[in-house]
Design a protein that fits this description.
13-stranded mixed sheet, Carbonic Anhydrase II, alpha+beta, three-stranded mixed sheet, 301 residues
Length: 301
């Protein structure tokens, strides 16, 4: 009832306004023009009345509510590598996910010097013969063993998840760089990472397990070759089990920190022919040495 009363009053008001405007209008102005102006005022008045009602929304509000806002697309990471625009010094610029590569304070690799020699607990190896697969990732050769092999460091057990090849070795020891390295990535049940690094240098004989990997190289990049095996991963280890330990990061994007590094002190001997295979495929896939930033580096007696 009250809505009709307000609408009637608005109509009277619009009529009075039209009458007040009439003297200023030209005498020859058609009555239709006046009715048109009156209709426009009346329509505007009705619109204002509707907007005054509870829950009423303007056309602009209705449009904004009806059109859902799409979330901003996540930037696509640019390809990383070891030369050109994707080189290590630019990894932090390629994706927001890679920022640690540029601003991290515990990055790897490092030069293992000024070590603290202590009686470190021996690494307990439980490497079991199994099958494996070999993948050419486009940045390195990646070996994935079947589940079952692990190491124990202190109270933590880490399962062997992958093996990657690097040329030359990324870790240095008192400034010395080795010809090649294998990085054995381990993970525990809580997601903590431990990286075991094996240093390789040129010698007279083949390394038997490495040769098994080389025998099953994929013919194309991004291709995987599955090998039923078994291969004895324990045969990769040096006879002397002293090691360096420190906290660092992954040496590839996203450069995740909080990685326990275990670098075996005794290098493995590999033949020139085995090194030539890696040289042919990836002659340089090593990240430059990063600042140690005062980190504690332990070395076994």
């Amino acid at each position: 009832m009250w809505q009709r009363l307000i609408l009637a009053l608005l109509c009277v008001f619009a009529t009075l306004v039209a009458a007040a405007d009439a003297p200023s209008a030209p005498a020859s102005a058609p009555a239709g023009d006046m009715r048109q102006r009156l209709a426009e005022r009346l329509t505007s008045a009705e619109g204002q009345l509707k907007l005054s009602q509870p829950g009423a929304r303007s056309p602009r509000e209705r449009t904004s509510r009806q059109a859902p806002v799409k979330p901003a697309a996540k930037p696509v990471a640019k390809p990383w590598g070891y030369t050109g625009d994707g080189a290590p010094e630019r990894w932090g610029e390629l994706s927001p996910d890679y920022r640690l590569c540029a601003i991290g304070t515990r990055q790897s690799p490092i030069d293992l010097r000024d070590t603290l020699k202590v009686d470190q607990e021996p690494i307990e190896f439980d490497y079991r013969p199994s099958g494996f697969s070999v993948l050419d990732t486009g940045q390195t050769l990646l070996v994935t063993p079947e589940a079952g092999s692990s190491i124990r460091v202190g109270q933590r057990r880490y399962e062997l998840r992958a093996i990657e090849a690097r040329m030359p070795a990324e870790m240095r020891v008192n400034g010395q760089r080795y010809d090649m390295a294998l990085h054995l990535l381990h993970r525990d049940t809580e997601g903590r990472l431990a990286m075991l690094a094996l240093l390789l240098q040129r010698g007279e004989q083949d390394q038997p397990v490495l040769q098994r990997f080389w025998n099953h190289l994929p013919l194309e990049k991004h291709q995987t070759v599955a090998v039923p095996g078994p291969v004895d991963f324990a045969a990769l280890l040096p006879t002397e089990r002293g090691y360096f330990s420190f906290m660092g990061s992954l040496t590839t994007p996203p450069c995740t920190e909080g990685v326990l590094w275990l670098v075996m002190r005794q290098p493995l001997s590999v033949s020139s022919q085995q090194l030539a295979v890696m040289q042919r495929l990836y002659p340089m896939n090593a990240r430059p040495v990063q600042p140690a930033s005062g980190r504690l580096i332990k070395e076994s007696f």
